[in-house]
Design a protein that fits this description.
It comes from Seriola lalandi dorsalis. 64% of the residues lie in helices and 0% in strands. By secondary structure, it is mainly alpha-helical. It folds into 2 domains: 1-117 and 234-249, no CATH class; 123-210, Tetraspanin (Cd81 Antigen, Extracellular Domain, Chain: A, Orthogonal Bundle). It is elongated, with a radius of gyration of 42 Å.
Length: 309
Amino acid sequence: MAREDAVRCLRCLLYALNLLFWLMSACVLGVAAWIRDSLNTVLTLTAHTRLEEAAVLTYSPAVHPVIIAVCCFLIIVAMVGYCGTLKCNLLLLSWYFGSLLVIFCVELASAVWTYDEPLVQRSDMISLKSRMPNYGLQRYQWLTHTWNSFQTEFKCCGVIYFTDWLEMTEMEWPPDSCCSNQYPGCARHAHYHDLSDLHQEGCGPKIYSFIRGTKQLQVLRFLGVSIGVAQILAMALTLTLLWALYYGRQSPEPDSTMQPPPPDDSAPLTVTHGPSAEASGCSRSHKNCTNSPAASKFHQHQFEMERLS
């Protein structure tokens, strides 16, 4: 009974861990896709600068294709582990343990290989101004769209201040994406009437903060560490369950409720004690002995023996 209770407890814990693997893997994929969209915008604005290299070093461990593939594979492995735990299948559980071990080694190697502290300074933000003169040109529509998307999403304007657009381009006012309330011609109206309608913070500090790390990146790091700890725990529980199931099948417990076989009623019953030899020769099937005193005594002994048996 103690071994059966332990096996039941191990199975419940593995069910919970597999469910946790599904949830955390889905969260990692969702947050990575969210970060990747903003990262592509930053990489477009910081192309061929030190900021681009720093952004790649910071976010490559989080959005690396290997990590994304590992999370997808972990979802499949968790399903196999759930089925193996449900059916107590030694083969599926062994495959589950081996897959978790391989995934853990890949994650650890990828984290060590891609980890590097980015070297970026605030003075590097000035290099972003070199990307501004091409704004609005026909052949750089992709750059124009990137600037507008970044300024709208991060609520900033220019590199240091919105006047950077007037210094680095031939524009008379900033783009409409600098407005807090955007509509066609809002930047022109704000430039001549109310500058407070424009975003007052530059995009340089926003990019610097993004490269140093965002809340989404911190969430990804926390999820990565949590998945690693859960994998170690799942492997330990799987080994314990495999040991319990294997040795439970090798040496089954004896059934303590088994009763001894009943006595054979077909064997002749012989009574060795009695006052006469006639009584000793009577059996239960002889009707001629029922009226004698010896027969009545014989039946009395027979009744007591059957009751005791």
